[in-house]
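Re: the request from the purification team.
They wanted to know what the chain is likely to look like in 3D before they choose a buffer screen. I agreed to run a prediction and write the result into the notebook, where they can find it.
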Amino acid sequence: MRAIATTRSVPAIDCDPQEWELRCDMAAVFRVLARNNWNEQIGNHNSLMLPGTEHYLINPRGLLFREIRASDLIVCDFDGNVVRGTGELRRIAFNIHAEIHKWHPQAACVLHVHPPYLTAFSLLDRARLGLAHQNNLFLNERVAYDDRQHGILFGAQEGQRIAEALGDKSILIMAGHGVTVVGTRICDAFDELYFAERTCMYQMLALQTGLPLMQQADEHKIPFIGPFGDHMDSRFHLDAWRRILDREEPDYAS
């Protein structure tokens, strides 16, 4: 149930109300990511498992995040087939998302994007988030680092490798590449991605002064690797963005 109601739209395609609401959430996330310039042209990809099935929603090949509507999302299976919708499943998206969904039950939603600060951070040799900002106290234990990323890799083995590198964490910083964030709900993955990018931004800006980062005491860490929304207002955050989109870009929910 939505924490604070947004405008409900009439399904533009033949699907049940639960799926339509998930589609609208996903489309809203695509639009917000576009507003923040967190993706590569028509590249990058986000997916969401449909409850009770082995099918997932994902963006079709060739669309900018800023133009994606709820009805544009295609439904695919673990063999790479488009079972519903119009459009092509990008092969590299299938190789990454299908494997993560299969190997990680907590990864109902998978966001794979290139936000500027986390991506710049991934270009630093074996960089690690410091324990400086108060956000780090909650965030750092949720982050895994993929230091083995070299070159552009294709095939299901790449998705399997990413799934293995993720382990029991929800954020994977991929060396020389970008970031993958997973969550049990779309709002959780979205909120955590937003939280991580902001926290990384603080660190990157602080380091530009040439001064060392301060060090918080380890005893202040908050070790937690469960659903992000259990501790944060993830649903409220996405609802707030949907209200803005309802006013400014209402076609997202069409």
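For the purification team: The chain has one domain: 17-245.
Please add any questions underneath this entry.
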